Recover the amino acids of this structure.
């Protein structure tokens, strides 16, 4: 029989993020705000980042009320300089940064035969280029300082499945997120850095608001998603927090390069 280790006797210690620091992009959005509040409530320091100052400050107040130390950076990850400014804010405020959650993302649906190339590029830039800048800056910092960082990206079931709704940008960008997750995980494994993604199906946020209203294509898209979800409902941001905490905490130290489907069973059937 094996030893009854301290970890087995105190399994919640594996999820301990207290005193560690996270950078969260897209922190005004549903996922970014949710993960910021979750980490803050567990005593982590959070650098909350978004391009919308008013919504960012409101979300930051919510995270502060939950108990964490929070600073805000009014930027999107549009360039290397932006990513460097986020890291600097974390270092200035808290001395080190151990976690990164890329919650910034965007979609503009359009059928390929009707849409402009620039609209496709804007989705790719928001969803893939932003991850790449954040990974380059945080990865460089982690390697140089021998920090076993935890990186979390937001993929989607659309990285694996097509859609009826004009998603050549979105599906392509999320397929790229999946590939980036795997290649960063393999490149950085020797440093003890882990890289994983969460792939949800539809959950309520600004991004999906069009599916909850009267829009005809939105309703058809929502109905089609629902019909394929064995658990019989769409997601809420709380549904993602257990996985986010797992992937950002020591509990996931032997898990890397994975796209974790938190999708009500969508990809199972
Ligand atoms: N909701 C879903 O059903 C669903 C499903 C699968 C995957 N996801 C993914 O989950 C992530 C979070 O999305 P969410 O649902 O929480 O959406 P959300 O509430 O709309 O939040 C998106 C965040 O991204 C930022 N953002 C918007 N446009 C941007 C752009 N062009 N460049 C950079 N940042 C931009 C927004 O902040 P500012 O405008 O303030 O900068 C906002 O904080 C995204 O990667 C999304 O693709 C969502």
């Amino acid at each position: 029989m094996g030893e009854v280790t301290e970890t087995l006797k105190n399994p919640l210690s594996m999820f301990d993020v207290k005193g560690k620091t996270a950078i969260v992009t897209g922190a005004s959005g549903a996922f970014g705000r949710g993960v910021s509040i979750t980490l803050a409530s567990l005593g982590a320091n959070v650098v909350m980042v978004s391009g919308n100052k008013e919504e960012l400050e409101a979300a930051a107040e919510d995270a502060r009320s939950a108990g964490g130390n929070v600073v805000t950076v009014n930027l999107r990850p549009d360039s290397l300089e932006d990513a460097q400014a986020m890291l600097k804010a974390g270092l200035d405020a808290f001395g080190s940064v151990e976690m990164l959650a890329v919650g910034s993302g965007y979609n503009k649906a359009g059928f390929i035969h009707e849409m402009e190339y620039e609209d496709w590029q804007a989705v790719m830039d928001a969803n893939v280029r932003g991850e790449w800048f954040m990974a380059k800056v945080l990865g460089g910092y982690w390697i140089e300082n021998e920090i076993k960082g935890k990186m979390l990206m937001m993929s989607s079931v659309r990285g694996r499945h097509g859609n009826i709704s004009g998603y050549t940008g979105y599906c392509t960008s999320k397929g790229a997120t999946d590939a980036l997750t795997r290649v960063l995980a393999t490149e950085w494994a020797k440093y003890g850095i882990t890289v994983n993604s969460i792939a949800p199906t539809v959950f309520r946020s600004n991004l999906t608001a069009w599916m909850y209203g009267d829009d005809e294509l939105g309703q058809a898209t929502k109905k089609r998603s629902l019909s394929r979800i064995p658990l019989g409902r769409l997601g809420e941001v709380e549904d993602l927090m257990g996985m986010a905490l797992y992937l950002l905490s020591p509990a996931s130290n032997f898990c890397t390069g994975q796209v974790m489907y938190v999708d009500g069973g969508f990809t199972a059937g």
Remarks:
- The helical segments are 6-9, 30-41, 53-66, 80-94, 117-144, 168-188, 216-227, 238-248.
- The longest strand covers residues 194-200.
- The chain has a mean pLDDT of 97.
- The domain at 15-209+236-261 is CATH 3.40.50.720 (Rossmann fold).
